[in-house]
Amino acid sequence: MTAPTPPAPPFRDPGLPFAERVDDLLSRLTTDEKTGFLHQFTPPVERLGIAAFRTGQEALHGVAWMGPATVFPQAVGLGATWNEDLVRRVGEAVSAEVRAMRARDERVGLNVWSPTVNLLRHPLWGRNEEGYSEDPALTSAIATAYTRGLRGSHPIYWRTAPVLKHWLAHNNETDRDTTSSSVRPRVLHEYDLQAFRATVGAGAVAGVMPAYNLVNGRPNHVSPYLAEHLRTWTDQELLVCSDAGAPSNLVDSEHYFATHEEATAAALKAGVDSFTDHGTDSTKITARVRGALERGLLTEADLDRAVRRQLSVRFRLGEFDGYDEPGAFDTPEHRALAQEAAEQAIVLLKNDGLLPLAPDTRVAVVGLLADECKLDWYSGSLIHRSTPLEGLYERFGADRVTFAEGADRVRLRTADGAFLHVRPGEGSPAPVTGEGALDPALLAGRTDLPPLTTDATGTELALVDWGGGVLTLRAPDGRYLSVAEDGYVRASADQPGGWVVQETFRLEPHGDGHLLRHTGTGRHVCVTADGVKVADSGAEVFELVVAERGEDAVARAAAGADVVVVVAGNDPHINGRETEDRTTLRLPDQQERLLRAARAANPATVLALVCAYPYAVDTGPLPAVLWTAHGGQAAGTALARVLAGDVSPAGRLPQTWYASDADLPDLLDYDIVGARQTYLYFEGTPLFPFGHGLSYASFGYADLDARVTGETVRVTFTVTNHGDVTADEVAQLYARAEAPSVPRPRRQLLAHRRLGLAPGERAEVAFEVPSAAFAYWDVAHGRWRLEPGPYALLVGASSEDLRLTTTLTLDGEPAAPRPVREHGLDAAGFDEQSGTEIVDRTKRSGDAVTPAPGKTGELLYRACDFGPGVTSVTVTVAGEGVVELALDGAPVRAVLATDAPTAGPYDYVTLTTGLVAEGVRDLRVALHGPVRLARLGFAG
């Protein structure tokens, strides 16, 4: 007799709600098994038939790091489309490729770490290419569209599980694991949280990844905002995945905790559910968790909470129901979508009538990026490739297009008169078998090729200076000089790449020549008997022998053409990327020289900027300027089609382009209100404003109507294509408080729509905006408040090109003074400040304020209500120093000083002195010395 098959456990029953199934499975796991779930690489639980799982698959603009994939425009380029429908379709294509690639390679994960919703507050941020916009509304709209595409359309199961990066206020790479972003409450609520909040609230987000930096003195990986804000925005379980190595940083670089057991426990309690640390080796993290359990720093309930969140994601992905949605890879539809996205991302910044080009135009395409299709750190490997040169060949014919790269052609002569020599065939690629090609970033490490040598004639190398003295050297066959682990210099890389770029050098003046320093190792290039290498001693002094200057080649090509297209910009692996911020908005000197040479030889010069960042360029003498982010596999075809007028450009700038470095605040100044940052507050004249972009058609705006219906403001207007070509327009709606009681944005994007119109076609655009969108964070009461009064509604083609305006009067909540007599005053709730930083009140929660190093801190609290009167003030402080208080700008009324430093930064004491005040007054506080002010209290 056959024994009956035991019933499947409840967690295997697809008829039960996910929450019940998660609880059942969780109850079956041992403590050790739960502990194993906390590392990025979760081991299988074979006794329950549970497979291994890992968090993390990069998919920022296509599947990354897993070989060939469809490569779409960089994220900032997707942001420039201002087109949610397009971006959703890109997300769908990416998630389909994730599923298809996973079917043949189990290393491909379904928990995708994308998109990046950090706001592009500062254009020198090295990871500018990864975000969508400086504006939270546009960022959240694009991010929501991408996550919906990544999630898929199945009513129950998710195609992939998106994780947003990087929580929170992360806009600097310089010392990113130790710097603290000082974020006042208004900036926190009105700006940094906003992009995350709307995207999470839309329901297609599986989790977030905390950033490396600290916010208000506290590492993001122990941020109380995860519980106080993030997890309140949705009913779904959210999985918080640490950034790579960040858990160890809590002790090793930040010194925030004394032991890794304390740090791990604090992160887990704060809400981190999956620890990305030590690569595939989970033993260190699991040992720390066990140690924290043994010391009583964690409980079983803490583990259950984190494991439940991970299991919730795995159930949604269909793992326990055998669900495996068929994917699609490199389809004709994906290729067409990559081209469409590249076309829609192109922004026409200036056009004096030179564009579009006539079909019989003779074009010279010149510049260091003219025959390049650059990838970035989060790109997949190209299956298809289109450079500007190739696109123009295809569109205008090879007989009508000439090319000059503009690299300097040089030889490097040694002290004994020999030259650096690349042996014939040395740069040949390694043989490839099977599907796909080698990742270019991996070629740099090859040691199977002979190193460079010297001989009497040498090899002519292409030298490109990417700015700041950082240069690349390329052999005639196209391979870049690179340094492998053995220290030898070889021509072995398709492109600069890798986490540490091994293809960049610096020429350092030395006597009558130059030393050649390799930036990846910091060592100088030496010539030895067994080949050219880098070493700590024996540096060779080279003479730079120039065979041809790049500007001479550019001038020749330009002079013989009807129109010159100068393609300039950045290499995404050099002078601005993850781990490295930019230092200037200026184009590198070499590219400036090439642009001047082209313009001098032929005034009909088009500048095509292909770059991940805004640049400050003198566009005055140029008849036409375009910008596109690195546009992926179809970038060249897209650019050529726009230049030829096959497509009317309709991309719009997702961030302000400033005219000079002098317009920029310090990179670490996160106070966009006080420092007047982004289009929201910037009072200068930008080079090109937020939302700017021209077209080959002209559009008229009319019939503006705005009215309030309940809690909604309905705005309608018409847009008409007055041109003679079909084109897209991006209609933009902004608002401005006309009589604000506190500093408010000059204008703020409320809604936008990209619409295509045939010649003469007219369309009505309608936006319904919740009245809450007009509110601001009232620091006096710690909540949102809609201020009653007049608001201007501004409609147009950019934040500065406004065609229609009207004014609405909104009802709201009148201002009320701060009830300081009853409730006291939190120090960080100031209205204005100078010379201060917000720091952590305790390691777990709360804020305090301290003077910035070397400064006296000044704080202003407006409209403080002291009621019938107070006679004393109490301050809660730590550290040492002096707190001075004054009312309404009058002479100092109260001085409180610590007699001696407190035992530590979190050891607070209370100091009390007399202060006579009544009614509503402004309170000014000055902080002297390294004192931390947490709170003020008043008594009568």
UniProtKB/TrEMBL annotation:
Any one Gene Ontology molecular-function term assigned to this protein's record: carbohydrate binding
Pfam families: Fn3-like, Glyco_hydro_3, Glyco_hydro_3_C
Transmembrane segments: none
A single GO BP: arabinan catabolic process
Fibronectin type III-like domain sequence ranges: 729-799
Domain of life: Bacteria
Keyword Hydrolase: yes
InterPro entries membership: Actin-crosslinking, BXL, Cellulose-bd_IV, Fn3-like, Galactose-bd-like_sf, GH, Glyco_hydro_3_C, Glyco_hydro_3_C_sf
Limits of the Cellulose binding type IV domain: 818-940
Entry keywords, A to Z: Hydrolase, Signal
Annotated PANTHER family: BETA-D-XYLOSIDASE 5-RELATED (PTHR42721:SF3), SUGAR HYDROLASE-RELATED (PTHR42721)
Role summary: Catalyzes the hydrolysis of a non-reducing terminal alpha-L-arabinopyranosidic linkage in ginsenoside Rb2 (alpha-L-arabinopyranosyl-(1->6)-alpha-D-glucopyranosyl) to release alpha-D-glucopyranosyl (Rd). It is not able to hydrolyze alpha-L-arabinofuranosyl-(1->6)-alpha-D-glucopyranosyl (Rc).
Family note: Belongs to the glycosyl hydrolase 3 family.
Name the record gives this protein: Exo-alpha-(1->6)-L-arabinopyranosidase
Taxonomic source organism: Streptomyces fumanus
